[in-house]
Write a structure and sequence with these properties.
single chain, about 150 residues, alpha+beta, four-stranded antiparallel β-sheet, two-stranded antiparallel sheet
C-alpha cells in the first residue's frame, strides 16, 4: 500500500515536468520529455500528447476507483475494537460516508465473531491538518454483544 502512495506522490511531482513547454523563451527544444505531437481521434478532434500525459498523472493521483475511506482496526480486548477511518486527501465526494463505512465494518466484525449485535462505545470525527492538505478522520470504539 505504501508503494502505491509513493507512486502517486512521484506522479504528482512529475506533473509540472510532463506538462512543460517544448521551449524556453521562444527557443524550440528538441530534448523534451514528451514530443509536441498530437493524437488524432477523428477528423475534427486532435489531442496534444502533453494533455494525455497530464490526464494520466491526474488520474493516478486522484485514483477515483479507490475507496474514499481507509479503515484501520485494533482489537482492544475480545469484545472491543477501535476503528480508525481516514479519508483520501483528493476525492470528489464521500463526505457523508464515514458513518455508513463505520457501521459496515462493525457489522462485519459482529458476523466474524458469531455475535448478535454491537454497541458504539465512543465515536468522534475531525480533520487532520498535519500534512500539506487537510484530511478528514474519524475513530470509534465498538463493543461486540454476544
Amino acid at each position: 500500500m505504501k508503494t502505491f502512495r509513493k507512486r502517486r506522490l512521484a506522479a504528482a511531482l512529475l506533473l509540472p515536468w510532463l506538462a512543460a513547454c517544448s521551449g524556453i523563451d521562444g527557443v524550440p527544444s528538441s530534448n523534451t520529455l514528451i514530443p509536441p505531437d498530437v493524437v488524432t481521434v477523428s477528423r475534427s478532434l486532435s489531442v496534444p500528447l502533453e494533455s494525455i500525459a497530464a490526464s494520466v498523472v491526474v488520474f493516478v493521483v486522484m485514483d477515483p476507483l479507490a475507496p474514499n475511506w481507509k479503515i484501520e482496526e485494533t482489537r482492544l480486548n475480545p469484545e472491543r475494537y477501535r476503528l480508525a477511518l481516514r479519508k483520501k486527501r483528493f476525492s470528489t465526494g464521500g463526505d457523508g460516508e464515514v458513518m455508513p463505512a463505520f457501521y459496515r465494518r462493525a457489522e462485519q466484525l459482529v458476523a466474524q465473531n458469531s455475535a448478535t449485535n454491537y454497541r458504539i462505545v465512543e465515536f468522534s470525527e475531525g480533520v487532520d491538518s498535519g500534512g500539506v492538505i487537510a484530511q478528514r478522520v474519524a475513530q470509534g470504539v465498538i463493543e461486540i454483544v454476544r
